[in-house]
Amino acid sequence: MDWDEVSAEWVSRFRRNVRRWYSRCGRDLPWVGERDPYVVWVREIMLQQTTVKAVVPYLDRFLERFPTVESLASAEVADVLRVWEGLGYYSRARNLGLAAKMIVGEWGGQWRETAKELQTLPGVGPYTAGAIASFAFGQSAAIVEANTARFYARLLALTDDLHSGEGRRQLWSLAERIVPRDRPGEFNQALIDLGATVCGVTPQCQECPVRRSCRSLELGEVERIPVRASRQKMTDVFEVLVVIRRGHHLLLIQHPEGKRWGGMWGFPALSREKDQAKDGIDERMVESQVADWGCDVECDEWLEEIRHTVTRFRLHLQPVIATWRSGCWAGPVDAEWVAVDELASRPLSVAERRVAQRAEHIMRQHGASM
Ligand code: SF4
User: Which position among 56, 206, 272, 301 has the lowest Cβ density within 10 Å, counted as fewest Cβ atoms?
Assistant: First the structure.
């Protein structure tokens, strides 16, 4: 369908049907009607790659800890990451901190209201900018996110991959065409709700308020759209995590920016052979690699392997507790000795938090003399 030829009448009927449906069936989300740009921004960043259910408790905790953009701008990165811990995609949290500094430092704490200006903030793409502009400032700004992309694709009977240049162009072109001047935030929320509930993965076309406008339904193509891009292949990664202990302290490294878990704390990692079980790992190889990083250690106890998926990587992490004998850390990344009692204050990935808790448990059982 060529959307440039869609009539004003089509658009106005579509809007009317969407609004009517929303007044009866919109989701009762805790943030409906929220106009504070700071809250809208944090929430929308959290909702990227994360479900509503998972976001609700995190949002409450985050706003309690950092209630204003000023409080976020003056926070330590580690404190922001600690509150974010478990949500994943940690670059989102680092970008929130950078953007807060920009809003306070360069904008004098005054929000910009247009999607174009908001997109200059780190981590704010077209969707988030449109969401802040429409929800908080009542700007007639379009949005395309996962739910609306699927919904628009079916309305259009779009056969392009949604992530391709042409696919994105068509989705945004439709979104810009349908967003109204009157209460655009409410309208955008209605579109998201429709995409999330009625036009979900399994579409409920009988309940759809805009079925008469749906090209896929007309063509009998609903099951086939959106066209799925071929799935990205998963890669297995096998590593040994070396949990180095010295009395009641553990050596934590800080993952470098731009790498996996960048900015978070964790344990030095070595590559290992595919499928190499802990019995098959040469402890001397582990000790010798750690010696290259300046510390003489002795491997003591192997923990259960941890499996964890990060983006397209399936991690197989084999932790080993090793006792420090001598030397100073001179490895390629920053590291610090952290008292076991203080581990809770450091941001760790979910997988490394599990390792830290297991190591802490063992150390408390054995006492410091292990
Ligand atoms: Fe989605 Fe079905 Fe509605 Fe079309 S008719 S928009 S496929 S729910």
Answer: 206
pLDDT digits (tens, 9 = 90+) for 206-254: 999 999 999 999 999 999 999 877 777 899 999 999 999 999 999 999 9
Q: Where does 206-280 show beta strands of DSSP type E?
A: 235-246, 249-254, 265-266, 269-271
Atom nearest to 225 CA in ligand 1: 7
The catalytic residue among 44, 145, 287, 352 is: 44
Question: What is the 8-class DSSP label of residue 264?
Answer: -
This prediction's pTM: 0.85
How far is Cα 99 from Cα 281, in angstroms, rounded to an integer? 44
CA separation for the pair 45, 274 (Å, rounded)? 36
What is the spatial distance between Cα 86 and Cα 351, in angstroms, rounded to a whole number? 9
3-state helix, strand, coil in the chain (%, to 5): 50, 15, 35
Is 117 catalytic? The answer is no
* Residue labelled with tokens 């989300």: 29
Strands 295-302 and 249-254: unpaired
Q: What is the spatial distance between Cα 349 and Cα 88, in angstroms, rounded to a whole number?
A: 8
Tell me the three state secondary structure of residue 266.
Answer: strand
CA angle 123, 126, 127 (to 5 degrees): 90
CA of residue 193 to ligand 1 center, whole Å: 13
Give residues (CB < 6 A) around ligand 1.
Answer: 151, 154-155, 198-199, 203-205, 208, 210-211, 214, 216-217, 222
